[in-house]
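<instruction>
Derive structure tokens from the sequence
<data>
Labelled lines for chain and fold
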Amino acid sequence: MEMSKIDSITLGVVWGALRSITQEMGAALKKTAHSLAVREAFDFSVGLFDDQGLLVAQGDFSPGHLGAMPFSVKHVLSEYPSEEMEPGDVVFVNDAYMGSGHLPDFFCVVPIFHKCELIAFGVNFAHQVDVGGTVPGSQAIEHVYDHFAEGIRIPPTKLFKTGKLDKDVLKLILANVRLPETVEADLMAQVNANRVGEKRISALVETYGVPVVKQCMAEIIERSEKATREEIKKIPEGRYSFTDYFDDYGRDTEPIKVHVEITVAVSDITFDFTGSSPQISGALNSVLNYTYAYAFFAVKCLTDPTIPQNEGTIRPVKVVAPEGSFFNPRFPAPVGGRAIVNQRIYEAVMGALSQAIPEKVLTAASSWANPNFGGFNPRTGKNFVSYEIAVGGFGARSNKDGCEALASAFNISNVPVEIFEAKVPLFIERFEILKDSSGAGHYRGGSGIRRDIRVLADDVHFSNLTDRHRFSAFGLFGGKPGTKGMTLLNPGPEQKVLHSKGSYLLKSGDVICEILNGAGGYGDPFDRDITAVLKDVTGEYISIEKAREDYGVVIDPETKEVDEEQTAKLRLRLRKERRTS
């Protein structure tokens, strides 16, 4: 059957099936994994590739992993060409420079056959809670000077050969991690997920035949590329640049410059990170695959979100970053803490393209926190590693406020308090949205959050991983920046400020207080509807004092009503003062 003769109904059904299969694969992975990182935080992703190793469909999971999958699959096929693959093979790879940028990310690739003919590849990723290295959780930034100190590194390796487990390979992996039982369970969950994909693809082929399914895959890729190029054409041609900064990469280190220049030329878009900082000696560098991944994601967000994300949507995008730079480090530069880099890539792109398509961009959001705790759990008599996630507020948009406590540049979730406390010797004492943290604007940014964690064991290692303690989340078009973040040890009269990327040893009773910064506002705060300001006050997102100071809205503290006459006068005076300042 010729590709042009595939009818639209068949194409639509096959596409719907492929999407459904990826979602079912993700559900299988989530439900059979053991770690909180996968089961509760959703730090995993799945995708389907054609027999040439081209991405066709993906689940609604993390952009950083999905964007890096095509590179990882190419490395797998370079090591194990398609003609050497056999039914039952399972290949794993976690090499950061071949995958998504740090060693905890394990990619699992399974060839899918139908009657001895290769049809597709099922691929998934899961963040393993520990892969060895200098600290529990394997994401330390300070005092990590090369990639070899970050944990076990696995090039493309067959864990299963024709359906038979290679016990020696598994033994080698598990001997190098702190939680072998959990890691083994999650690895097997990854295999389970791809087996689900294998069964569903086989059923699809039984219904429609190999030629039709393969031609539908090719057609989906071709149409996706065409649709993406049409969307890029809607962005005004030109060059747009933006600069932002990471606080630093450890105590007594300098800020990291994030600079991007975006060139839009007809239906192609190029992201050039030349001008950003060189690679650093701390473990925060972003490998090129990861830099690419969030460039893809930004394009997805700024074009039509209904276009399938696959090889076709990737083709119009080019990323440039000089070798040896922060966004394309030379091996063996350390990269373990690169998780928090994702948001800054995305935000820099938003800042640049605000000059071209202001109605579509977002302001900077809360920098999420990904602290890791590890030590001996006196309740279980075993070692533990806790992978904690705290996400704050979304950036504001041209027509809407930022959301609260929602991941902005990736699909992960705050781990439920009850489950967190049941698994590890840690206790959540406080978890709240922070009043007066959001950046003011015609549309305000999302609020920051505070999360206090009490340690219930001695000699617990804590690795902090967050940012925006020094540089606020920017606003756009007159919107104000959000408040800065902070990490405290034992908040109170004798509290100690901890570094955003520091590593510390804690004792039982210590409390870690993670304060996430507020997101930036969009547009002039004095244009904000006064009823929206009043709603924010009654909802305790902002105080009466901030309503007056940032928005020029006068609210009676007793009646909680707006004094419209005084508000009009105050806004007029504040506008005049701003023009003359």
User: Anything to note?
Assistant: The chain has a mean pLDDT of 95. The chain has 13 helices and 20 strands. The chain has three domains: 3-223, 362-523, 530-580.
